[in-house]
DNA sequence: GCTTGCTCCTCTAGCGACTAGAGACTGTAG
DNA sequence: CTACAGTCTCTAGTCGCTAGAGGAGCAAGC
């Protein structure tokens, strides 16, 4: 019966030890068996599940979405359209975020470019924040 | 002596009432005077400060950064280089975030495009999450 | 004067996804 | 045998709010 400790699982999966315990608590990972000394033992399937979770987190899926995706994975006969729709929602969110961040980038660049590096009294950064009418995107 | 209620201040500044109280608690806003009935009264300078805070938050500056920016604003004789550097840091952060989100976008699009809308057993979304070797950016 | 209904007050607790730390135990290498 | 790394559980903290409880102030209508 092979199986590894939580520390080894952390190394393999790239998820920190306390975070693994946290995922267990959140119900993403079934409670693993323990050694006589009460230590968690992770088998291959658990390690795969951990890796799945890490990838999903890296793609920005939240715990709820991951729970659903894992449930789907556990029942492979079902239609994949829920998984598809979760991924699409996530994509839309990412696209929107990029849009917003690009607008911020533009505004920050304008702010910084206008700064003459003198005193605060003349600082463009402070000025723009004080009087937003001076900013490039008056929509917000 | 003109001055407005917290509700009016919220309307004018675009910051919600509890959030204004929260900012006061966090030390971004000096404690305003009160009416006999113990209600906060906001004058012009406080309203301007609130607007400053809102703009800064919209640009993604965190509370600590805003505290510094406000301190600088309160002492306009100083060099503006700390303000400049806060803004530059923020810009760098935004640029990095955009980069990461774009990579996510690409990967999510690939995932979704590959999905044949059949069952989970054949779902590309689940597959990619399970076996990350299939993903386009093997760097993470 | 009295009621209705809105705004305001303080205080505490919750969100999400961890992270940090305390204090105790286990397991292993020298 | 001792040192020390790893693990255990539990609680509390992070950030920037947000929600709710339970109470008080205040203006308008009757």
UniProtKB/TrEMBL annotation, chains A, B:
A Pfam family name for this chain? Answer: MerR_1
Q: Which residues form the HTH merR-type domain?
A: 5-72
Entry GO MF terms: DNA binding; DNA-binding transcription factor activity
Keyword Transcription regulation assigned to the entry: answer is yes
Q: Does the keyword DNA-binding apply?
A: yes
Keywords for the protein's UniProt record, in alphabetical order:
DNA-binding, Transcription, Transcription regulation
Q: What is this protein called?
A: Transcriptional regulator
């Amino acid at each position: 019966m092979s199986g590894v400790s939580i520390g080894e699982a952390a190394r393999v999966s790239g998820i920190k030890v306390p975070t693994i315990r946290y995922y267990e608590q959140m119900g993403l990972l079934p409670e693993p068996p323990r050694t006589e000394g009460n230590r968690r033992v992770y088998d291959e399937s658990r390690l795969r599940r951990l890796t799945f979770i890490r990838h999903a987190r890296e793609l920005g899926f939240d715990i709820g979405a991951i729970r659903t995706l894992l449930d789907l994975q556990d029942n492979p006969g079902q239609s994949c359209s829920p998984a598809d729709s979760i991924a699409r929602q996530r994509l839309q969110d990412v696209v929107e975020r990029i849009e917003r961040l690009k607008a911020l980038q533009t505004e920050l660049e304008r702010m910084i470019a206008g700064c003459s590096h003198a005193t605060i009294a003349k600082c463009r950064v402070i000025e723009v924040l004080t009087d937003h009418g001076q900013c490039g995107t008056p929509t917000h």
